[in-house]
Amino acid sequence: MNMRDELRTLLQLKDIPRTGWVRAGVEHPESVAAHSWGMAVLALRLCPNHLDLSKVLSMCLVHDVAEIIVGDLTPHDSIQGHEKHELERAGMLKIAPQWIDFFEEYEQGTSEEARFVKAMDKLDMGLQAMNYQQQGLDLSEFIDSARSKTEETEFASLLE
Q1: CA-based, 20 to 30 A from 18: which of 11, 29, 125, 155?
Q2: Cα distance between residue 134 and residue 105, in whole Å
Q3: How far is CA 130 from the centre of its chain?
Q4: CA 132 – CA 50 distance, rounded (Å)
Q5: What's the rounded mean pLDDT across residues 36-44?
Q6: CA 37, 89, 106, 131: dihedral to nearest 10 degrees?
Q7: Which residues contact 10 (CB under 8 A, 6 or more apart)?
């Protein structure tokens, strides 16, 4: 694949709506790329000084790139766990093998940066759900999930 085609493929993430918001009936749901941007902004604002900010932002921006191929899989889908990871890993290797290490580190949570990025993933979801609730929807399942996944972090209070 030439560079132009590769870049055009990567930009397709901007056109994939977040499945969970669609399922919940959100009007004009964010794209997967908007979610990644949200995580990056949160990380830029909240990243502890001892973490490698470049690595953190890179993980935020590329952690869902495989969804260009596999789609935005949620806990409500039949594909989960190891099968989901393997599908996404194959997608990463096809689209962006240069970022497979960031993907694997994030997925496995093998560094403090990866664990911080996972917290940003959930924090973004929870705060976005709070925003979307202004549409009159009950999105407490998303907020509760975000709270449960961040309760061991210093960011849990941001979801109160």
Answers
A1: 155
A2: 35
A3: 17
A4: 33
A5: 98
A6: 30
A7: 65, 68, 95, 96
